[in-house]
Amino acid sequence: MTEKGEYRACTLYCGLASETFRDRRKVRRASAAGRLHMRDAAAKALGVRESDFDHLLRAGLLTHSEIVEGWHHTLVRLYRQADLDRRFRSRRIDWPAVHATPKGHRSPLAALPPKKDAHRWGSGRMNTQLDDLLEKLGMLDRLELVRRVRVGSLTLHVGDRMRASHRLQGSYPDEHLEAKEGRGAEPADYCVTHDVPTGTLGRLMLVRQYVTPFPYCIRFDNDVELSLA
Known about the structure:
Elements: E1 3-7, E2 10-13, H1 15-20, H2 24-33, E3 36-37, H3 39-46, H4 50-58, E4 66-69, E5 75-80, H5 81-88, H6 95-100, H7 115-123, H8 129-136, H9 139-152, E6 161-163, E7 168-173, H10 175-181, H11 187-190, E8 191-196, E9 201-207, E10 216-220, E11 225-228
Antiparallel strand pairs: 1-2, 3-5, 4-5, 6-9, 7-8, 9-10, 10-11
């Protein structure tokens, strides 16, 4: 299908072309290739241990496709099935040897050079000054640096009046309802639906001072409260 544009970093396609698209096999392949996995599920999809998966990340042979916000505002990295399939077809890795390594033994993937060294060996370039600076920082300092850059880029303030540029319709899980319903509850039991028509006014109630995909909390005049970017 031909791309027709972009909106908020999302590719747009012609609706008429979508309606006339009939190749179900391509749809199934695209759906399977676009499936997203958390770290443990991604390792399972490759048939390796999670420690092996970490070696692939360290070497820069795999990277996450998306970052979403999880419980208690934690950030969860997701890995795309197509990227896993592409790496699994790579001849750079002796996959039979990796799969044959018994638990408790050193993995062949442990010998992969770190991403920084691999880049240096492949291109002959030295690290930039920023890389050298980051190497001297501890993990907490790095996280604080990311937080300051992210929060410092936010331009809206609490109390600002907002207007919905397009219709916001969907649902989201309510943590309190989910806890009340207990384990085994269906999503319909704890998901809250919302519908904000185009042009609805709202007020910015909260600007989150930490790294999150949705830093703004907006309460619209129809009493719908959403977290948005």
